[in-house]
Amino acid sequence: MRFDTLQYFRGIAALFVVFFHAGGVIGNKTVFGREIFDQIFSFGSSGVEFFFVLSGFIIHHVHRRDFNNYRNIKPFIIRRMIRVYPIYIFLALSVLFAKYLQSYISEGYQFVFDIKEIIFSLMLLPENKINSIGTGSSILSVAWTLQYEVFFYLCFAISLIRKELGVVAIVLFLIVNLFFNYEAYYPAYFIFSDYIYLFIFGVATSVLSQREFLCKSNNALLLALGSCGWIICAILDFNATDGLYSNIRSLVYGFLSVIIILAGTNLERTRGCWNQKALLWVGNASYSLYLIHFPLIVILMKVFVIFFGNEMSNIYIILLLLISIIIILYVSVFIHKYIEKPMCKFFTTKFVN
């Protein structure tokens, strides 16, 4: 069963991430230097936690009948790679070419060509954080999340051989994560990252969603509680300080994502889905939006600074932000419709059908 509700949620989560990065760009001293925007939109990074839980849910929900048959591994991996790589590589190479051109146009900008870094980035392979920022995603900065997506797909593919292998992998992950200090070792800190919990949360949500008693519960109330919890966490993000909440922030958002996804899908099963074409429009284009929004935000904001300066009031900055979001949405939908979808269709026809 396809859930339009999840597409709405996906669109909202993508917009959260867009606002998060927009706040960071606006707060940068080389742009507008208004750090208040960075603070206000700090909650937006929670869209990543939601995406990870949603990914675990969808993958298990779609393939829950494919376990215990190794023949399902190949088509699963091919379909997942087609979904992730073609448009990502296309956009990454486009950004790489733009950076190369910028080194000729802009004085003081130097393009450093590191072939190993580029290959790792295009293949979505995690790098040692000693040599790179985070897990290494030098071309498209948001691509670090795709590294975790690909890793989850590979783990799930192994569990298709025998469902028990997936259970063993989860138990092993929990043991290492809880009892061993792995953070200084590469690639252990990537494999056993807390982000993996979120995919496990998603799989668990899919399993729970099949339980009839949950379909009969008050899912509207659950959805309201999950949404209120998200708002409370957003307020905590605004006043963020190092402490207990900072240490468990991802897991808290992950748990709230479970509640929202579970309640939303059960509501759609029992009551149908409300018609929100705009959110469906954004949700369908969310992958292209997620990939391209950050370089577009940087370009647009720098163009605004060139034409209007950076001394304007916050009201005008908000207006420019909204204009930027509209432009980015239209560009993302264009890329989704005329590049992403045709590419997926082409490779699916060639390698699957």
Secondary-structure blueprint of this entry?
Elements: H1 4-27, H2 35-40, H3 46-63, H4 73-105, H5 115-123, H6 144-159, H7 163-179, H8 188-191, H9 195-209, H10 212-215, H11 219-238, H12 244-271, H13 277-284, H14 286-308, H15 314-351
Helix pairs in contact: 1-3, 1-12, 1-13, 1-14, 3-6, 3-9, 3-12, 4-6, 4-14, 4-15, 6-7, 9-12, 11-12, 14-15
| Helix/sheet category | mainly alpha
Largest sheet: none
Q: How far is it from the N-terminal to the C-terminal residue, by CA? A: 21 Å
The count of helical stretches stands at 15
Q: Percent of residues in helical segments?
A: over 70%
Q: How many separate domains? A: 1
Summarize the structure.
With 353 residues, the chain is an all-alpha fold. It has 15 helices and no strands.
Structure description:
The chain is mainly α and 353 residues long. It has one domain (4-351). Helices cover 75% and strands 0% of the residues. The two termini are 21 Å apart. The model has no long low-confidence stretch (mean pLDDT 88).
Which terms summarize this structure?
75% helix, 353 residues, 0% strand
